[in-house]
Design brief:
Number of domains: 3
Structural class: alpha+beta
Strand content: 25-35%
Radius of gyration: 23 Å
Order of helices and strands: HEEEEEEEEEEEEHEHHHEEEHEHEEHHH
Oligomer: single chain
Length: 331
């Protein structure tokens, strides 16, 4: 078993690792912490995530701006490595967050005590209090999508405390930690090809220093995408019939903000069209029942014919509401 073999090296997980010199253009890997793996919401800090699909963090965190498309991503909780994948898309947005600070020292190290009173404790100065000070901040958030290559691991001896041997900073309290890539691939070698097949098909070496880009063919194990196929069939709502592998489940609202899959909140869109829709370069005018394209898209012949065209599927009143909100946002 992996952990047993690693322990045979007699290296304290807290000690510094003998790092292999890595070329500047080589792969990078990151370990991120899921505080609540049984839920889509990390309830203690207000982030939204869906295990096996997406991970959200604040850009200002240590390494918050270092994570890139094509990087390896390992998800863990306090004890186990939950799974791993490759990042295939990162969305950037802003969100208002509340920060709790200590009324005595002003440091944001407030802890909740569930069994004793007062309810709050400052981990910095040791003060206890009933109510912390609260500040609101507008912060840049990032959401990494990684569902296409996600491998979910069973909790057991192979995954228990494995993160200590993978992380380059195992004693760090940071939620984003760099990973020893060599150790990571040693870890994956102890799983069968069948167990890591989804990851392996995405893990192709690309020469010349290019970053890995992948096409998402489905979003984890979510029933959301399947529900759209059941409702609309293999049809891009804006361009028409397409192969299922070329279609993505597009949320008509900010999923990172909502954190749930609304039953009437999505359409199947071709990957390029999905990207344009998210950026507001394509929008649907509910009043005229026509698509409208941004001026720079109109200059491209392959998209020009979409301008003024009708939507290709029958949509519900609720979908029309989402489309109108999107229209108002970008038009």
């Amino acid at each position: 078993m992996f952990i047993g073999m690693m322990r045979a090296n007699k290296r304290d997980p807290g000690e510094s690792m003998n790092l292999v010199t890595v070329p500047p253009d080589s792969r990078r890997a990151w370990m991120v912490i899921s505080k609540n793996p049984d839920s889509t919401v990390r309830a203690d800090d207000g982030y939204l995530e869906t295990i096996g699909e997406s991970y959200e963090w604040v850009s200002k965190l240590p390494h918050g701006n270092d994570i890139s498309v094509g990087d390896l991503l390992i998800i863990r909780d306090s004890e186990f490595v939950l799974g791993f994948s490759i990042i295939d898309r990162i969305k950037v947005g802003s969100k208002i967050r509340e920060k709790n600070t200590c009324p005595k020292c002003g440091v944001a190290q407030v802890r909740i005590r569930k069994t004793v009173k007062p309810m709050y404790l400052c981990a910095s100065c040791g003060a206890t209090f009933e109510i912390p000070n609260t500040e609101k901040q507008m912060l840049e958030h990032k959401v990494a999508s990684y569902g296409a290559g996600w491998v979910e691991l069973e909790k057991g001896s192979r995954t228990s405390k494995a993160w200590k041997y993978l992380s380059l900073t195992p004693k760090s309290q940071h939620s984003l930690q760099p990973v020893n890539v060599e150790a990571f691939f040693n870890f994956t070698s102890h799983f069968s090809r069948l167990e890591i097949a989804r990851f392996s098909t995405r893990n192709k070496d690309i020469k010349g220093g290019h970053k890995l880009r992948t096409v998402k063919t489905r979003i984890g194990q979510s029933a959301f995408r399947q529900s759209l196929f059941d409702k609309f069939g293999p049809v891009c709502a804006f361009t028409g019939d397409n192969h299922p592998a070329g279609l993505e489940a597009a949320h008509l609202y900010s999923y990172s903000a909502e954190g749930i899959h609304h039953s009437n909140g999505g359409l199947l869109l071709r990957r390029d069209i999905h990207s344009f829709f998210d950026r507001g370069l394509i929008a649907f005018n509910v009043e005229s029942k026509k698509l409208e394209l941004a001026s720079d898209l109109l200059e491209l012949s392959q998209y020009k014919s979409l301008h003024g065209s009708a939507i290709k599927v029958e949509v519900s009143d609720q979908i029309k509401v989402w489309l109108e909100i999107h229209w108002n946002q970008f038009r």
